[in-house]
Amino acid sequence: MSRDNLIFGALFAAGLALMGGYYVSTLPGAADAQTPVEDGPGPNLEIDVAGEANGTIVIDLLPDVAPLHVEQITTLARMDAYDNVVFHRVIEGFMAQTGDTQFGRADGDLGMAGRGGSDLGTITAEFSDIPYERGIVGMARSASPDSANSQFFIMFGPAPSLNGQYTVVGRVVEGMDVVDTIKRGDQGRNGVVADTPDVMTDVRVVEQ
């Protein structure tokens, strides 16, 4: 995968400041109280998290909405590619981003975290009308709509500006309290978590 395909950014608040790394355009929303979310028929992604957050996040994946993206995520999880990968960018009131299987490993040099992906290649966009609300899980991408690979993000609150712009792959059905305690990054650096970021210690697929 070329470096050009791995340069991301984030449109942060009204400043539209472009930063290095896979990006999601930012319009923070309030972290409303989590309402119960029904677990659908799709496979679940179970994520054990350690750090400031400790516990398990359960994501109901949506293969009927984004079959190509869900297939990529589940393939990587079954390969243990997500194990020991950090939450490298976490923005208060907006989202927590992880999944850089190339540069985001907790036992490696995190200086490039957020700029990498897997060897499986990029995925054609599968946009839907599902709104970006608290607990929604989306795929990070570069400027090209068809550039998602391995990185994904979990929403702390609603962000209507993302609707129809980033592929929705799932929703948190358990463990939103764990998501809420993931270590935040430096707002001045667009949410980059420079020191001891929280880690996905074990990521597994559970079929329904």
Characterization of the model:
By secondary structure, the protein is mainly β. The chain starts with about 45 loop residues before the first strand and ends with a strand. The relative contact order is 0.28. The chain has 2 helices and 8 strands, in the order ββαβββββαβ. A hairpin with a 3-residue loop joins β3 and β4. It has an 8-stranded antiparallel barrel. The N terminus is likely disordered.
Summarize the structure.
This protein is mainly beta and 208 residues long.
SSE arrangement, N to C: EEHEEEEEHE
Please tally the β strands and state the result.
8
Alpha plus pi helix count: 2
Strands of the biggest beta sheet: in what spatial order? 1-2-7-5-6-4-3-8
- Give start-end ranges of low-pLDDT stretches: 1-20, 25-34
Intertermini distance:
33 Å
Taken from the alpha-carbon principal axes, the silhouette is globular
Radius of gyration: 15 Å
What share of residues are in beta strands?
Answer: 15-25%
Which structural class should the secondary elements be placed in?
A: mainly beta
Mean pLDDT: 86
Fraction of helical residues: under 10%
Largest sheet: 8 strands, antiparallel, barrel
